[in-house]
Design goal:
single chain, 498 residues, alpha+beta, Glutamine Phosphoribosylpyrophosphate, subunit 1, domain 1, Rossmann fold, 35% helix, globular, disordered C terminus, binds iron/sulfur cluster
Length: 498
């Protein structure tokens, strides 16, 4: 998962990128970068760490120009090193590019580029995408036009299979041009907006636009490329379009609640998911005295669930605001260290009560086991857990670090799942998983409940195993092997350093 940003038509393009990237910092904390075009020069600054700390005024002073692209990175393939920070640059023709997502034929593309004597400097998926785009442009006469870029994108989309959004800055028809494009199913998000002074902004989430006071005009469509130039109307072209399948996990966990994706606020979706879980919980005849969210993501769903069940909603944990998100941290040891810092319970909210905890999802489940122990130690008489999404049973091959099959905690309690679990099967796995977690009950939202609530097209492959962009068994093995290797490298780095 990463965050992308672009702006054109602003006298303070780099500074705007600096501000906006902080509004999508939750999408990646590993590295960040800003790149501009200034009278046919293509400067960039890429740094490790958080935007606010990594960039100083002198960095922004190195980035003149009225067009900028920016990026915050969380690696799903590759390592957390500066060489892998984005945006990336290709000299011929000059193109800055940043991306969010995952290629599912990365190795095949690397082979194809090597046949053309193009070799990579990084381990990130953005580079083969950029190189393919640049190669496709090089085949066309100099002085590239918007039509050339469309043809080059179409060629790139044909070769580069996967789920990704890109933002690129280049010169087309002699003008600085910002391009934002989404994969054929629109799995990864991208939104755009404009200002009355002729400036345009694009980003992974509307929070980046809000940070600049720019009005959001909508989502970039699946397979659509938008070409944006200062003071000119946007030009939209469909590069390659399949059935839309936006990532439902953005709504459940990743995106900020104040973002609007696919025309709705994430906050409203989380309220609705909480209500849907309440209905399923009620049908099971379960009882509790109080609803407590495991902060922060689950708060809106827990509030709506409590309202629907007529139960009191309480804050039982105080979150240390200076610790990071455990899920997005690099490895297991780091995640557990972070958790110890992260949550502190308020005993009076648990003692003598049947507690219904609410969380967004269970991926690896290790931090959860400790949270449940913590609740028991506060004197709760019963501990129940409601999850406002279905069990995560399948890895994501589309850019979210959920990861390898064996890491998914719920997998241990089902036999080889191929589609959504039947109700009976789900209840049985919940009982077995609850025993392992030492819970009185565990209730997931069903896939049917999720679909009734969302009511639109979606990718929910991590829940139901139905991948909208097909991933062959061989490619699944390759991607998971790469991830295991990346995981081992990170652990080796920690052992060496620590
Ligand atoms: Fe999102 Fe899950 Fe689909 Fe991955 S598999 S894109 S996390 S819904």
């Amino acid at each position: 998962m990463c965050g992308i940003f672009g702006i054109v038509g602003s006298s303070e393009a780099a500074r705007s990128a600096f501000l906006a990237l902080q509004a999508i910092q939750h999408r990646g904390q590993d590295s960040c970068g800003i790149a501009t075009i200034d009278r046919e020069r293509f400067p960039f600054v890429r740094r490790l760490g958080l935007v606010a700390q990594a960039f100083a005024p002198e960095h922004l002073n190195q980035l003149p120009g009225r067009i900028a692209v920016g990026h915050v990175r969380y690696p799903t393939i590759g390592r957390g090193v500066l060489a892998d920070a984005q945006p990336l640059f290709f000299r011929q023709p000059g193109v800055h590019l940043a991306h969010n997502g995952n290629l599912i034929n990365y190795n095949e593309l690397v082979g194809h580029l090597a046949e053309h004597s193009v070799h990579l400097l990084t381990h990130c998926d953005a580079e083969p995408l950029l190189c393919e785009l640049a190669l496709a442009l090089q085949e066309r006469p100099r002085g590239h036009t918007l039509d050339d870029a469309c043809a080059a994108l179409a060629r790139t989309w044909e070769r580069a299979d996967g789920a990704y959004s890109i933002v690129a800055a280049l010169i087309l028809d002699g003008k600085d041009t910002l391009v934002v494009a989404r994969d054929r199913c629109g799995v990864r998000p991208a939104v755009w907006g404009g200002r009355s002074d002729g400036a345009y902004v694009v980003a992974s989430e509307t929070t980046a636009l809000d940070a600049l006071g720019v009005e959001a005009r909508g989502d970039v469509g699946p397979g659509e490329a938008l070409f944006l130039r200062e003071g000119e109307p946007p030009v939209s072209r469909v590069i390659r379009r399949d059935r839309p399948a936006p990532c439902i996990f953005e709504q459940i966990y990743f995106a900020r609640p104040d973002s609007r994706i696919e025309g709705r606020t994430v906050y409203a979706t989380r309220l609705a998911l909480g209500r849907a879980l309440a209905r399923e919980w009620r049908q099971l005849g379960r009882r509790a005295d109080v609803v407590i969210p495991i902060p922060d993501t689950s708060r809106p769903a827990a509030m709506a669930l409590a309202e629907e069940l007529g139960l009191p909603y309480r804050e039982g944990f105080i979150k240390n605001r200076y610790s990071g998100r455990t899920f997005i941290m690099g490895d297991q040891a780091q995640r557990e260290d972070e958790l110890r810092l992260k949550l502190n319970p308020i005993r009076s909210e648990f003692e003598g009560r049947r507690v219904l905890l609410v969380d967004d999802s269970i991926v690896r489940g290790t931090t959860l086991a400790r949270t449940i122990q913590l609740v028991r130690s506060q004197g709760a008489t019963e501990v129940h857990l409601g999850i406002y999404s279905p069990p995560v049973l399948h890895p994501c091959y589309y850019g979210i670090d959920m990861s390898t099959t064996e890491e998914l905690a719920a997998r241990a309690f089902v036999l080889e799942p191929s589609g959504p679990l039947s109700e009976e099967h789900q209840r049985e796995m919940e009982r077995n998983f609850a025993r392992r977690l030492e819970l009185d009950s565990l209730t997931y939202l069903s896939v049917a409940g999720l679909d009734r609530t969302w009511g639109g097209p979606r990718c929910a492959a991590c829940f139901d195993g139905r991948y909208p962009i097909p991933v062959s068994a061989e490619r699944r093995r390759e991607i998971e092997a790469d991830r295991r290797l990346g995981h081992e490298r990170r652990q080796a780095t920690f052992r060496f350093v620590g």
